[in-house]
Amino acid sequence: MKNIPISFLICCTCLFARAQDCSLTLKGHVEDSDTKDQLTGATVMIRSLNQEVTTDENGDFNFIKLCAGTYILEVTHVGCEPLTRQLNLTKNTHLDLLLPHLKNNLQEVIVSGTKRLTNTGFKQELAGARLEQASGMSLAEALAKLNGVTLLQTGSTISKPVIHGLHSNRILTINNGVRQEGQQWGNEHAPEIDPFIADKLVVIKGVDELRYGSDAIGGVILVDPKPLRYLPGTNAEINAVYFTNNNEYVASGVFEQQLKKQPSFSYRLQGTFKKGANVRTPGYRLNNTALQEENFSATAGWKREHYHLEAFYSQFHTKAGIFTGSHIGNLADLEKAISSSKPADIYLGDAGYEINRPNQEVSHRLFKLRSNIYKGAHKLQLILAAQYNQRKEYDIVRSNSNTKPQLNLSILTLTEDLSWEHPPVSNLKGTVGVSFMQQQNSYTGRYFIPHYISATYGGYWLEKWNKKRWDIQAGLRYDYKAFSTKRLRNSVLTEYKFDFSTLAASFNTAYKILPDMHVNINLSHATRAPHVNELLSDGIHHGTATYEQGDINLDPERSYNVSIGFDYANPGKTFTAELSLYNNYIADFIYQQPEPDEPVLTIAGAFPKIKYEQTNAVLRGIDAAFNYHFLKRLALSSKASVLRAYNRKIDDWLIMMPADRLSNELIYTFKGNTHISEPYIGIEYANVFKQSRVPGDKFGKQDYKEPPPAYNLVNLNAAITIRYGRYPITLGAGVHNMLNKSYREYLNSFRYYVDETGRNVQFRIKVGL
Amino acid sequence: MRSLLNKNSKKLIMKRNFLLMLFAASSILLLNSCDKEIAEEDNDGEVLTTLELHFTERGTQNSLIYKFDDPDGFGTGSVPPVIDLIRLLPNKVYDVELRLLNKTANPIEDVTAEVEEESADHRFYYLPATAGNIMVDNLDKAADGLPLGIKSTWTTGAKAAGTIRIVLRHYPNGGKATDDLVDSPKSGTDIDTEFATAVD
User: Fold this and answer.
1) pLDDT, mean of each 10-residue run, chain B (200 residues)
2) Which of A603, A607, A610, A754 to mutate: most B Cβ within 10 Å?
3) Across the interface, which of A371, A402, A603 has its CB nearest the CB of B44?
4) Which of A396, A279, A400, A280 is nearest to A327 (CA)?
5) Which listed residue, of A690, B24, B82, B187, carries a Cα 20 to 30 Å from A734's Cα?
6) Inter-chain contact A488–B18, Cβ cutoff 8 Å?
């Protein structure tokens, strides 16, 4: 598959030979020029063809069926300086490429670019054509293209990622190297990140999690931009996307420049605008489901031989309507809404862009300063970051003259991370780091969580060793978190103080059975302190007509995870397969237990109570995927994801877990030429089973409605890259729910009221300038 | 040799400056996070704590007040609401006026006028149990002629015990019509309370 380049190195100024001999082969080998290591996982790209390959275990790569002509090769590897090489291809050629070791870059030690699970128990990456397919969608929707990742939704406008059944505070999202700290604790709190910032999205589990926290029970999501260019010149890219279902249009642009006169300085500007109207289900259009988003980011870097300084600022702002018929006054209203097959007509039929109450408006600002100092083989990195998140929720109010938000949360977070990568000792590489975080949360309006101030102190140590067929990694992390909360209500001040110590450790062994067959075993322990909402929430949730109550006596939850990964590719690479098995035992797992016998009486009627409780949970599952080119141009790509989640304490299933799912996609790749890269068209048949494993009613009613039935969707994806003059233009189209089927998804809280989105055709264009 | 030294010391100075800058930046950030005074919780009039029913026996000056009262709202540590028993005399006619209060506000906020102002989007329902021998009718109208129900007439029959449910519905998208039922999906619940009644 063609990928977006990891690094824009140069504008393509390729010349094309007229005489077409299009059967040439270009082979090569990539090495680190300093250490002479064979570089596995280096990306070799011919931009003019939009073709990209990754070097194998021996550092070798191979392009076939090239036409004669002049090409520019761009080679990137995570630990090395990027390299550009011009090549006049007239015959079959072999190239040896030496990449200088990157002195100033302290990137993650994880090797990105490898397409197989070679290093961690669970590592999945979304980049290139697959990331492009998600162009214009939300971060969570893009991540859901990965096997094992599903969505937790509140209607069509709010979605967050679920990894192996876990979400919210159990997943860490790392935005450009900084731990994202917003209000991610709620089910209707989506990640506040513009996916257009990312060049790739990576989900990791294992040793590298420990860099970011001891609480990544569900895994870590890395949102990685491409590195700044340090070759003179400019680069720009424009993306435009249109979705037919809700007349949504998205425009995003990026511009980067490196001046010849200032070889140390480089910068990038990026922005996105998005606006969508009300969403249509197959039967009706849902009023007040419009959304709007404006994002901006700027990056500037200063790079010298011994240090590298990078400043990054990003600003995210979204306003999302929430379907009016989902705002529930009390339990009777909810039951009435659930019993209707379709919402009342008054909430349907408007195709406009207007956003009324209820809605939410979220803004997130991040400023980051990263400095790397390089001394001999020592690498020192300091990241200072400040984040400010504001979340305003506008409920339906009794008084039309009320213009204020009913819930208004502001959170300021400061983080300081210092790490030292020691020089390699024989085959041992390692990193030691400390991190600090200060946080202040405040609110006005309706109470849901209190004011608080928190301070976290953490330290970690990771070591990685590899030799021949073995790759062994181990790491340890400890965090201490203290916070104090305040609430002033009816002139009574309520204060609490909490402190938690959390420990995490991970051990990973990978063994290469054959050059293209690996097995990987990972043992991980993580500890997550209860979040302030789990301790102290106290209020009515209007989406679910429940009264949510925290418990100040909760203990941290501790996970013990074993996962085994296996991957294989046949010698011709026409068949590749991945298998991942996991068993995650979580002691003192925090969850919401309905207490149907203790309703809370208010002037608006009685609300069922839901209380935070702890149990011992077991989440085990399988992710499997294979890709088989059974004909030269036709491939079958299949994936399956199965999860079983138990609540040990009541000896029953855990509520709100994703149903099993299966997807089969047939992809046909057309023949390309010098002007057109290999276009593809894929048709996907996705099956989602009914979630039949839900808790029974032995402790009272656990849910208002039985999980929805199974559904099958047909989706289409196609793209073509053509070269217009010196500009590559990618045109793409995607169809979601091609047969316009009515269905409901168990993990969408709107499944009580409305059907999911109907047919949605995406048209997209990407122009590189 | 000399120039080399200079170059090195320059580099050192630069590095030191650079580190100083970082520390300065971090300390400014840290200072900003100092504790702030916290404000009293305020939900600007969206909270309703009390529903009062003011009864005047027709043809007399006899008046009665019965209420649903939850002055500290709901939630952890709060006192449960107090709901009065509505005691009325048999075979009488009462003119009843309803009042809504927010007692968490200081001073206490009367929300009735606000509902009256937006009468096109609100409607009260009175749902007495038949066994209670209370009949409610003659609800006042909103500006557009549709039922509102801040004022009503209660007629009692023979001695009986029963209940009455009083509901305030709110139409966020308008569309109120005379024949809308209490559970019309066009409207949502603002108030839903049940009083025990005694005609004796």
Assistant:
1) 46 55 55 57 77 96 95 83 96 96 87 90 94 94 91 96 95 89 89 95
2) A603
3) A402
4) A396
5) A690
6) no
